[in-house]
What does this fold into?
Amino acid sequence: MNRRKVVAGAAVVAAGYGGYRFVPALFGPRIEFETLDEPRGFRRIAGGRISTGFAPFAGISSASAPDPLVERAARIVDDDICGALFGASKTGSDVVRMASFSDYYCPYCRVQTKRLSTIESRSGGRISVNWHELPLLGDGSQLAAKAALAARRQGAYAVFQERMMTASFQTTPAYLAAVSASLGLDYDRLEADMSSPDIDLELHVTAELARRFGFIGTPALVIGTTAVQGEIGERVTTELIKIERDEQRGTCA
Amino acid sequence: MRRFPEGQFRTAVLRRVVAGALALAIGSGGVTAATSDAHRSPALVATLITAEKGVAPEATAISAGLDLTISEGWKTYWRSPGEVGIPPTVDWTGSTNVAGVEFLWPAPTRFTAFGIENFGYHDEVVFPLRISLLDAGKPARLNAKVNLLVCSEICVPDDFTLTLDMPVATGIDAAAAARISDFAARVPDDGTASGIEITSAFVAADRSALTVTARSERGFAAPDIFPELGSQTTFGKPDIRLGDGNRLMWAKLPILGSAGDLPALAVTITDGARAATVEPALSDAAAAPPFLLDRIVPGVSEVAWIALIALLGGLILNAMPCVLPVLSIKLASAVKAHGQTRTRLRAGFLMSAAGVIAFMWILAAATLGARALGLSVGWGLQFQNPLFLAAMVVVLALFSANLYGAFEISLPASWQTRLARADGQPGLSGDFVSGAFAAVLATPCSAPFLGTAVAFALSGRPVDIVVIFTALGIGLALPYLLVAAAPGMVQRLPRPGRWMVWLRLMLGSLLALTAAWLFWVMQGVAGTAAVAGVAAGIAALVAILSLRRLNQTLRLGAALILAAATLATPAILREAPSAAIGPETGWVRFERREIARLVSTGKVVFVDVTADWCLTCKANKALVLDRDPVRSALAEPDVVPMLADWTRSDDAITRYLESFGRFGIPFNAVYGPAAPDGIILPELLSSEAVLDAIDGARGMGATASGG
It folds into this structure.
């Protein structure tokens, strides 16, 4: 009887451990969607706890006079929201396209950006990410965003992004000059590009997109036709990619 | 942007003002609330509060606070936010009758998320504000344009303006005053009142790390450290160790990034409710840590879990081919001695259990001693030592010969009588030895649980090591303890008879097989010549011992000399290690650097750490790795199977295992573009696990290699 008790005890312990270890994985939360009225053809994950209540774009100074740049940005988005979101380049129908909105001063953006670029690089070309700069966190983040877009004009967006994401910094001209030098970029050109109207317009287009999707902060993400606000885990990200790939919703096909 | 608490005395002044105000508050009925309208967002509720209900006549200053109630899951940041994030800023433009505002920062909390260190506040914080007035005793208006960053899984800038009119009035808002003084008490001081003194601070010449020591005669409980070295310098997670009865704190922080000239260092140390910020002078050398321990002390529940695993592991060891014979011999002797009393049986089995546990304690002590000497020790490592192997082979061969009836092992008569006199029950010491012997034999059988428990033990505290080895011993001794608990079980075993001869022969064969296996291991470790030498020595030993006509003393003496000579042979005849790798085609030799290079070219690398003496590794190889579908999966062009042979001690492999917190094998890992840090496989492999890991390491879309 003694032995029976020991065996029973061991079985209970083993079952308990097994249950604790494996059962929760079977009951992951299901993803549910909510159709967006605007922009048409898109949806978002339902039940997010952050949706309303913040003043949208507290960080962006809203000029009271109509800004011609804002109007131009709005027209660009009206004409071709898919191009504005995912970039002009056409891709095959088996490619899931993503638009990432991030800020160099936002801790969770680092996590999200690293994750997305890993997902993109290991997808073998079946996922493409278009990176948007949404600098909401003050002058330093504005400057960093412009520098990143200027680096893109020298074909160095990815290395610049990686550099900014792996170090702590205060964006100052001296810091940007040092980074450009170490990445082999032309700093004079970078500086000139940073104040160019092109980059200003690009930032405004991103801001307009964020406004339309109701993004109130960073990070934010559009995967295919699904808008996501906030940092989501690896599991939800890959799940959404899979859903978008399977459903082939035609909004931006 | 960044404000240091220039004069800590001001904090003290503020505390005194607030305390005085609190005293005044008693008895004064409230008319006006000294609180601004609230700003509400999903992340926080913010108000401006003041201790005074208005500007008292002649008053030159107001004690105020920016009061944030932060929603669950949200946080905001300290003046040095860490790797990323931005601190709150307040613009007082638009205020009237305000000469200046001193903004005080209560000590922060550390947030670690995804490897990013941030410092700030959650739940609630009040930033104490000392507002000096332009005109004493005149009404004032506070207009605070607040700009702060709040983050949960999303970061949102929250910009808002709070206004508060301060008419000329007397009286104190007791609740606000209490709140302000509560948080003012959390603002770090200069170390005087908090009793924290920084004794050294050293920045490595290559700016790789900062080492700080601090003392507190009150003793530290759970300190944390927040250094500030310019806005471009960030620090990783601190390694904090306490010493000298917790009066000494030693901390080392990796410097993750820095640029330009370094400004003066400011160090904030927090410990519970007290905190101090000091600008220490830099030392010339790093202070030595109070003790060497590379692991954070585990909790009690974790120890209990690991002990349970060790117990199960020990129990399973009994079924291993290298231990089963000992248990069988033990049971056979119980059968033979049918006439024994229950008490004698019980005592015998208890002694065997004690032998097992005693050996485990010896192992624990040896582990502790070796660790104190800085050696790396691992389970099964003794099988890399040819001397140990030779000793084991000699003992096993002699036992086997004894079971075959070649000779009788008997202690000298004088010993026997002495033992008999000592406890009246001859043979108990033999029981003890057979228990210890079972434990010795169990060491090569690294059962699945064992690796985990031993790795934990080796990197844990001394008490963990003792707990784990004891649990292992109890597990291994469980069958003996069961018989001791119910000696009746033995009565049910069959009566002695002719079958016992066969049993003896069978057990002898088992021991001989084990010896043969050890020979094979030894051949891998020390070479064929050593094996031949030891085999010859054993043959001579057995021959001498079976010469019954010889005088017993002479016989034993000769046997001892021969045994010593046999043990010496592997050391003399040991061959130089051969550089060649195993005969398997397709496997490449383990090279840690190669893994990263291969992965970067899109290859999947399968690492198998194995050794000739590792039975579980052999089972993995025979049942999984050398069979389809795994064999063909490993043969695919984008898969590189890599073999690390640990049969002989190899520092590179030992360090590799240690990097995963492992001290025993089998160990298998799969690297690939989607798993640059490797996917660790379970000790007992299965085809599915290996294939899943290979697919997982390849990543999604297996058609093309990742960039």
User: Anything to note?
Assistant: The longest helix of chain B spans residues 342-372. Chain B touches chain A through 50 residues (CB under 8 Å). Chain B has a mean pLDDT of 77.
